[in-house]
């Protein structure tokens, strides 16, 4: 018998949500913003990078731009030259995000689940690659800010953000009682590094569970199709997590 999502999450001391593709249906919004921000460099180079951008979604903004500067432009990904590049193109990206991000809809079940967890007194946090101020703004626009204890943005890597939450909630010794709810392999790796449990949400993810929940980091991970409170929580990459009506 499988657990339903709401009950399963309430069995944890702390729930940490990723933002994009988990609470907010914004993954492709960010891809489109990145495509426009880097348009100076031509379609071929940018589209090649966007594949990596999707694959490593969940990294901090600085890490993404460093990867483009280093791997596509032959730069160092650090130093004065990179900082000038970062200021220019990250600034463009931030302007596009400011224009489009807050209009992204919530993911299916997100509002209902967050409010149900809040009603049960479960501590909720957000750890995201999005900058903190941007994340706080989109949560406020969605009406979810009051339910979230803290928002930890992409100024630091996600694993560090999870560590902060564990230290400040004094549950370091019981890290597995904290769960990160995410939609990317970067989220899985952050949870593994911090020692927390991991729940993969598949519906809005760039890649299916079979491509995300691989390797030793996936040991003990769980999956769910979306955030509907009654969604079935499955253990690891065993079979399709979609409800029958969503399967092709």
From TrEMBL:
UniProt entry tagged with the keyword Hydrolase: yes
EC number: 3.-.-.-
Record-linked Pfam families: Hydrolase
InterPro entries: HAD-like_hydrolase_sf, HAD-like_sf, HAD_sf, PGP-like_dom2
Domain of life: Bacteria
Keyword list, A-Z: Hydrolase
Gene3D superfamilies, A to Z: HAD superfamily/HAD-like (3.40.50.1000), Putative phosphatase, domain 2 (1.10.150.240)
GO MF terms held by the record: hydrolase activity
Protein's recorded name: HAD family hydrolase
